Amino acid sequence: MTPPLGIVEGFFGRPYSWAERTALMQFLAPHGYGFYLYAPKADAFLRRRWREAHPAEEMARIGTFATACRAAGVKFGVGLSPFELHFDFTPETKTDLTRKLAALGAAGCEWLAIFFDDMRGDLSDLARRQAEIVDFAAERTRAERLIVCPSYYTDDAVLDRVFGQRPADYLADLGAALDPAIDLMWTGEEVCALEFSPGHLARVAEQMGRKPFLWDNYPVNDGPRMSRHLHLRAFTGRPAVIGPHIAGHAANPASQAMLSAIPLLTLAASYAEGEAYAYGRAFQEAALTVCGPELAAQLTADLNVLQDANLGDLSEARRAKLRERYAAFDHPAAREVLGWLDGAYAVTGEELQTQ
Asked: Which ranges of the chain have pLDDT less than 70?
């Protein structure tokens, strides 16, 4: 069983261009990707400056992308992160939220995601406060589906160290306070989960009072450490047997849009093929589909270097040799490798703090 499968563009650093975003969406649509959540961390008007209107030109681009999604049979959604609104849900911020929801609806937002991640959450009544915000939004949005990312969206204790200790029973309290029709996102046992198991997902579903909607942090490669690697390998640890245990599966792609399509195709294959899925073969078939035979062969030959070696540890001579290889290909995936080699996709710690 393949659950609703799609993209959550939710990474830090350099966002996709609208052309890259559209090309990735249109490429994946025939392969089972049925939704696209636009939520780049670099879009300040969805995050720290959410109370301000998008510039008219940018809102027009969002509307154009929404139209392209509809034409491809893909549900278009927006991830709105109303930064620390649970500390300041006043008549003024309610007015701002109403205005923002109306603007997103007018632009063609079919799914609305409200993200409470990446913000302080150590309040004893956090679940109640956030449920109040979600209920308010649910009454005012045109969206047909509402998805919420909790402040604590994984068992990983790193969130407690960074954003404050999670309230006791937070996940259960939030689930109990929300309409059962509203989805709750979950990244797994860790922020970047190695695998998802039916047993773990069943436990989370019991806490939430609904099946979790997966936010899968692969092949994302943002952050100072991960941006030094290209995530190209096929998905593992997402067996088809988890399908009945989840409400949806949103993959957070890598900073390189076209290269992301390689592992993303393998996620669809993992569900479709079930026990017959083989990740090595899946990678080869996906690389061939995305890149053609010659570039796929080159990526296969260099896979260990591109994914496992740290870009900062590569000698200039090694980088020059790689540049020479990929400069020979007139393909967007090859150009992304070249950009990565030149540091165009590097993400700094400052961006993690300010976006």
From this structure: none
Is the peptide bond between 219 and the residue preceding it cis, with omega within 30 degrees of 0? yes
Q: Where are the domains of the chain?
A: 5-285
Distance between CA atoms of residues 39 and 6, nearest Å:
13
The reported pLDDT for the residue numbered 353 is 81
Bridge partner list, 6: 35, 250
Q: What are residue 149's phi and psi, to 5 degrees?
A: -100, 115
Could you give the CA distance from residue 150 to residue 258 in angstroms, rounded to a whole number? 30
Tokens (6 digits) for 173: 């309290």
**What does the angle CA 241 – CA 70 – CA 5 come to, to the nearest 5 degrees?**
10
What is the distance, to the nearest Å, from the Cα of residue 55 to the centroid of all Cα atoms in its chain?
Answer: 24
Say what the pTM is: 0.96
What architecture is the 5-285 domain classified under in CATH? Alpha-Beta Barrel (3.20)
DSSP string, 107-132: TT--EEEEE--SS----TTHHHHHHH
